Amino acid sequence: MGGAGQGGSNGQGGSAAKDGGVAGTGGGSDAGTKSDTGGSTVSFSKDILPMLNTSCKSCHSPPSPNAGVDVTTYSAVKSSATSINSAIQRGIMPPTGALSSANKQLIQSWVTAGEPNN
Q1: Distance of CA 106 to the CA centre of its chain
Q2: Are 30 and 117 in contact (CB under 8 A)?
Q3: For the segment 4-14, what is each residue's pLDDT rounded down to a tens digit?
Q4: Which residues contact 10 (CB under 8 A, 6 or more apart)?
Q5: pTM, whole model, 2 decimals?
């Protein structure tokens, strides 16, 4: 799944299918999505949450997350996923410096796949 303005699939077709049989998905009912970078599975718990913890949590965590956007739990991130992704893709967040292209692709792939909890 390609991010906006990035190479790869346009996010249409069967490549976004959840595949419970993919090795290394960490179990759970939602297996994640294949990214354009090497076909690896994007995992909320292994890829997305650690990235958000490192780059966003200092400003976006309880009790008073900036802009009301909490990045500390799956349910909180899912409820703001589109806004979070948009700010990251446009380079607005984090204010300390843009995420790498690889991390931007991970969040884009995860959102395009429907924000699976894996």
Answers
A1: 5
A2: yes
A3: 333 333 333 33
A4: 2
A5: 0.67
